[in-house]
Write a structure and sequence with these properties.
mainly alpha; Rossmann fold; 3-stranded parallel beta sheet; two-stranded parallel sheet; 9 helices; 5 strands
Length: about 190
């Protein structure tokens, strides 16, 4: 949908930004986390070197909702623990913090944040972008279907960014939201 692009724009405007996928990448280097994943998914999702084969993991979890949720139950609390630790370091400041969080509404995480933003694109655009990342259409459709419909996310969000247009149009929308958050100024860590 373009969450990473939007996060980058927020950073350029002066927001502190955290990408939960980056936090996950770091967690997937930790031996304890890898052991828990091995217990859940087995050794078949690992390379001989001991590193996680993310393509095999994706295939396994997107074909099995229970496995996907179990993996999320391992990873997500650790991600939020890291986000909490980072946020504690900003207490008493008026910095705007934007955290990129997949499955925000699907898992009920929206309550952890002051404001929410949904980035949306048409399905064709989303499939094209996933294809550019090496994800085949069939796999991409499985991933999209495992999420809430975008219209529901749009209804539940405080702000919506339509990422179908040009980069400049997306930037203008992000700038408008950033200005609104800056004007709000009602407490530490206006997070979205």
């Amino acid at each position: 949908m373009g969450k990473s692009t939007v996060l980058h724009i927020f950073a350029k405007l002066g927001a502190i930004t955290w990408d939960s996928d980056e936090i996950v990448r770091t967690l997937l280097e930790e031996e304890d986390v890898l052991k828990r994943i091995r217990r859940l998914l087995g050794s078949g999702v690992f390379y001989k070197s001991g590193r996680l084969n993310k393509k095999k993991v994706a295939r396994a979890i997107f074909e099995n909702d229970a496995l996907r949720r179990s993996l999320e139950d391992i990873i997500h609390p650790l991600v939020f623990q890291e986000v909490h630790t980072l946020a504690e370091g900003l207490k008493g400041t008026d910095k705007i913090v934007v955290v990129e969080v997949p499955l925000l509404f699907e898992r009920g995480y929206e309550k952890r944040f002051d404001r929410t933003i949904t980035v949306c694109t048409d399905e064709k655009v989303a499939l094209y972008r996933l294809g550019k990342r090496g994800i085949r259409n069939q796999e991409a459709m499985v991933r999209l279907k495992s999420q809430l419909p975008i219209k529901e996310k749009m209804q539940r969000a405080d702000f919506v960014i339509d990422n179908n247009g040009t980069f400049q149009e997306t930037t203008d929308q992000v700038r408008s939201i950033y200005e609104k958050l800056s004007e709000a100024g009602n407490g530490y860590n206006k997070r979205a």
